[in-house]
């Protein structure tokens, strides 16, 4: 469980504050708010890349700052909003990079690693892309591969920064369905930032809004709260 | 996994090529020698036999240096290209050689005792390369543009050239000649006694490189990804620059500047092997780099009667058009 209490998020100056919020395993949490309010900064803070300006994030009863980079990478994975395909990097090789915590010192995969990748490919429906180079994929395919890579990292939490921003409707729906499925089947905690609320509200997710009025993160229950926020 | 087989075939072919070229280089030259001479020169040496002396004292160090410097510069280039995610990076274009050149110039031209000793020369060349490498790394942190970084490297080179010219203008004829010859690049300057130490440093540095294969593979996706996978990116960056400096400084100290090998070979291997697995790329660069410089050396030997070609000139003649080709292809 990730517990956040009395912290301030930001780079050089404050972006927004959080009084108290918990993120649990087995659930999908959706964080929303207007552009530039600090959603990406918030997710980066949860990965330890960015330090909170004030306060502490507690991951499984221990402050995030007390974990080593390696320990965090075994508990939290992160998917960027934009993926860059790399020439000569096949999808299989790309997914294997997600297994870095498991492969041996020079990166050679074991039978377990190969099986983990096969399983991820079938869950995300990307078997047919195995041998393709990542720069030959469409943005939708690339996004699915990126989520699959975070999945094979076998972390308790997966954070995704605007995972549906560059996708068409079909792919958006597919991504949300997959996230719901793995949060339940694998008991993973999933935290996403997004603007695609119309679609997201059709899923049994937990919603959080960074309110413009007080610059704080609030848990919200219905669509009306969002409408109020964006109409003011 | 179908690639594994073709990769192995490619690597073994080049290995066979290296072996044949080395054998050819050891046996043939201005003075013909026989296989028997080679056997004795290597395993049962007598310095009273002229043929054996030629093989052991002249040809062996030259061939060894072709193999080592080709391999070292190519791996250094691979490291720079991955670190800066830039197909046009290399130890020479980024001006890492210039660091070594400056230190060697200070040593040879100033005539200060410490720099003129062998250890002083290697040490200062390595230090020069490392300091310039860190300088490039620092610059890259705010100069995100690929071409911009290259221009910076070229400017660094020009700046160092200017300092060297000033040093040259004020130095004695003897020192000037020895520095001018060094700056043309040559595989002939190394004695057979120096080979073990060069080989030792080279193998040690290769060994170090094997240990960063995993972070290198992730670095392809960017520095933040590397950090997210649990690596301390600052340490990794400095380690990469350190290894590059060891390779580049070592070769520059003994053979002078050798341009473009570190840029052309890593690009060639990525195209041929079609992989981003640095374990394979490392082996490929070691072997293809050696093979490439052996071919250069062979060319030089073939023309030696007609026209003495400095190695730095030859690699530039081949390398510069290749860089233009990549520029047009990738950065159009």
Summary keywords:
heterodimer, A: 232 residues, alpha/beta, Rossmann fold, six-stranded mixed sheet, four-stranded antiparallel sheet, 8 helices, 35% helix, globular, B: 332 residues, mainly alpha, ABC transporter involved in vitamin B12 uptake, BtuC, 78% helix
Give a written overview of the molecule.
The complex is a heterodimer of chains A (232) and B (332). Chain A has 232 residues and is α/β, with parallel strands linked by helices. Chain A has helices at residues 39-47, 69-75, 91-97, 111-124, 139-152, 169-185, 197-200, 223-231, and strands spanning 2-10, 14-23, 28-32, 54-59, 62-63, 76-79, 157-161, 189-193, 206-211, 216-220. The model of chain A has no long low-confidence stretch (mean pLDDT 91). Chain B has 332 residues and is mostly helical. Chain B has one domain (2-330): Orthogonal Bundle (ABC transporter involved in vitamin B12 uptake, BtuC). Helix content of chain B is 78%, strand content 0%. Chain B has 15 helices and no strands. Chain B has helices at residues 2-27, 35-43, 50-84, 96-110, 113-116, 118-140, 146-169, 173-184, 195-210, 213-219, 223-228, 233-255, 261-273, 278-303, 311-330. Chain B starts with a helix and ends with a helix. Chain A binds chain B through residues 47, 49, 68-74, 77-78, 80, 84, 86, 88-90, 93, 97, 100-101, 103, 105-108, 153, and chain B through 210-211, 213-214, 217-218, 220-222, 224-225, 227-232, 270, 273-279.
């Amino acid at each position: 469980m990730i517990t956040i209490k009395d912290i301030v998020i930001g780079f050089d100056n404050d972006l927004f504050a959080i009084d108290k919020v918990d993120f649990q395993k087995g659930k999908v949490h959706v964080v929303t708010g207007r552009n530039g309010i600090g959603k990406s900064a918030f997710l980066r803070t949860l990965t330890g890349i960015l330090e909170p300006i004030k306060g502490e994030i507690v991951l499984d009863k221990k402050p995030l700052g007390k974990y080593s980079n390696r320990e965090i990478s075994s508990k939290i994975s992160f998917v960027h909003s934009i993926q860059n395909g790399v020439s000569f990097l096949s999808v299989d090789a790309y997914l294997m990079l997600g297994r870095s915590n498991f492969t041996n010192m020079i990166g050679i995969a074991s039978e377990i690693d190969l099986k983990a990748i096969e399983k991820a490919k079938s869950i995300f429906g990307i078997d047919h892309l195995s041998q393709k180079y990542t720069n030959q994929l469409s943005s939708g395919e690339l996004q699915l591969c990126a989520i699959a890579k975070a999945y094979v990292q076998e972390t308790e939490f997966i954070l995704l920064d605007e995972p549906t921003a560059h996708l068409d409707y079909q792919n958006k729906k597919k991504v949300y369905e997959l996230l719901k499925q793995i949060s339940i089947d694998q008991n993973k905690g999933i935290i996403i930032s997004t603007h695609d609320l119309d679609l997201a509200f059709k899923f049994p997710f937990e919603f959080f809004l960074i309110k413009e009025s007080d610059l704080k993160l609030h848990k919200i229950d219905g669509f009306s709260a969002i409408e109020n926020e964006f109409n003011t | 996994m179908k690639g594994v087989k073709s990769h192995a075939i490619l690597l073994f072919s080049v290995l066979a090529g290296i072996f044949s070229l080395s054998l050819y280089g050891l046996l043939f030259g201005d003075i013909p020698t026989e296989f028997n001479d080679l056997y004795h020169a290597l395993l049962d040496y007598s310095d009273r036999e002229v043929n054996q002396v030629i093989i052991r004292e002249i040809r062996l160090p030259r061939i060894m240096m072709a193999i080592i410097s080709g391999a070292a510069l190519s791996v250094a280039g691979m490291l720079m290209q991955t670190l800066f995610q830039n197909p046009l990076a290399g130890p020479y274009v980024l001006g890492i050689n210039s660091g070594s050149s400056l230190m060697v110039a200070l040593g040879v031209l100033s005539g200060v005792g410490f720099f003129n000793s062998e250890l002083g020369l290697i040490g200062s060349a390595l230090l020069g390369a490392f300091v310039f490498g860190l300088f490039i790394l620092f610059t890259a942190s705010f100069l995100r543009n690929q071409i911009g970084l290259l221009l910076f490297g070229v400017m660094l080179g020009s700046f160092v050239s200017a300092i060297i010219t000033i040093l040259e203008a004020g130095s004695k004829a003897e020192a000037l000649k020895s520095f001018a010859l060094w700056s043309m690049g040559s595989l002939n300057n190394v004695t057979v006694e120096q080979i073990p130490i060069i080989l030792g440093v080279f193998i040690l540095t290769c060994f170090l490189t094997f240990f960063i294969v995993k972070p290198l593979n992730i670095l392809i996706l960017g520095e933040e990804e590397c950090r997210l996978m649990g690596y301390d990116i600052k340490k990794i960056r400095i380690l990469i620059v350190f290894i590059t400096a060891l390779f580049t400084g070592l070769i520059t100290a003994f053979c002078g500047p050798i341009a473009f090998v570190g840029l052309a070979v890593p690009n060639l291997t990525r195209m041929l092997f079609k992989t981003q697995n640095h374990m394979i790329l490392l082996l490929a660069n070691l072997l293809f780099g050696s093979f490439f410089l052996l071919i250069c050396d062979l060319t030089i030997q073939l023309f030696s009667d007609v026209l003495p070609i400095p190695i730095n000139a030859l690699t530039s003649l081949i390398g510069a058009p290749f860089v233009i080709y990549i520029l047009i292809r990738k950065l159009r």
